[in-house]
Amino acid sequence: MDELDGNAIGGMLEEIFGVDMTTAIGTCANCGATGPVAEVVVYLHAPGTIARCRACAAVLMVVVRRRQARCVDLRGMAALVPGAAR
């Protein structure tokens, strides 16, 4: 699978959240690493879109399309702050 960064899902996340989420600061629930969503590791061709922590490879976010809706699982994020600066 090809590994991309969080910028690859910027448009999709803006559709879902209504704001640019690539600058949002996320905190990994597994290891506590923090950083912008633009720096997560993204896999587009998994079952759905998968975003993983760059530090520990834990799954941070899963986005799947079900009929006309996108379903978002953020269980891997301890925190997600839109538009935040580190």
Outline the fold blueprint.
Elements: E1 4-5, H1 10-17, E2 25-28, E3 34-36, E4 41-46, E5 48-52, E6 59-66, E7 69-73, E8 77-81
Antiparallel strand pairs: 1-4, 2-3, 2-8, 4-5, 5-6, 6-7
Compact summary:
9% of the residues lie in helices and 44% in strands. The protein has 86 residues and is mostly beta strands.
Task: Summarize the structure in words.
The chain has 86 residues and is mainly beta. The chain has one domain (4-81). Helices cover 9% and strands 44% of the residues. It has one helix and eight strands. The chain has one helix spanning 10-17; strands at 4-5, 25-28, 34-36, 41-46, 48-52, 59-66, 69-73, 77-81. A five-stranded antiparallel β-sheet has the order 1-4-5-6-7, with no helix packed on it. It has a three-stranded antiparallel β-sheet with strand order 3-2-8, with no helix packed on it. It is globular. The chain starts with a strand and ends in a 5-residue tail after the last strand. The model has no long low-confidence stretch (mean pLDDT 92).
